[in-house]
């Protein structure tokens, strides 16, 4: 099983262009017919200032190793011309619709598309799950039909509510989204939301752990399946928590206890029948 590593794909929403890093799993030549494979769309963190590579290619490779395609979405950040919202949601919707055109080319199982967010990227994923999967709310943001819906989400030390600890400055929140409608993802979650895996550390000094708790609480109220793991130690932004994603010399990037999140996530993907049990 080979992977077409880091092919760049440019897409556009209206007059705004954005990029995807694509990691396609090649068909196995020995098979009589190509295998339809699940796909993960990854939204790295970076405080909406940048996208950290620590939560991009290493995560894509982990999904590739499971036999899944992976895309890293270069979603809208804060710049001189744009705020993050609503453009980041429109870009993610555009990406999902683009997959419809690629399903035969790359053998994508469109019924098994997973959104994966880290930190600020989780805010985009959580807002998509809350706003964009509710047909009534979506029409206010995205005029086109959503041709491909994600089947599940993975939220890693997520920003959910921008009023409870991150960002610390209200003016930064206004740069992210001048419309406070986008600030609190949990407030707009409906029964249309998809099953979600959440993990974070209770010692996260950047994004308060209550972010994870309030989103899980809202899912519980709506009877949306979820699994949440709160680890007793560890800093924000762990990514895999191993040397693979360690910024050299930064001990905060390592935590042997929290590395178990990946195995737990794998088990959950099997529980959701996104991956086979064996």
TrEMBL record:
<dbReference type="GO" id="GO:0016787">
    <property type="term" value="F:hydrolase activity"/>
</dbReference>
<protein>
    <submittedName>
        <fullName>Putative lipase esterase (Putative)</fullName>
    </submittedName>
</protein>
<dbReference type="InterPro" id="IPR029058">
    <property type="entry name" value="AB_hydrolase_fold"/>
</dbReference>
<dbReference type="InterPro" id="IPR050300">
    <property type="entry name" value="GDXG_lipolytic_enzyme"/>
</dbReference>
<dbReference type="Pfam" id="PF20434">
    <property type="entry name" value="BD-FAE"/>
</dbReference>
<feature type="domain" description="BD-FAE-like">
    <location>
        <begin position="36"/>
        <end position="126"/>
    </location>
</feature>
<dbReference type="InterPro" id="IPR049492">
    <property type="entry name" value="BD-FAE-like_dom"/>
</dbReference>
<keyword id="KW-0378">Hydrolase</keyword>
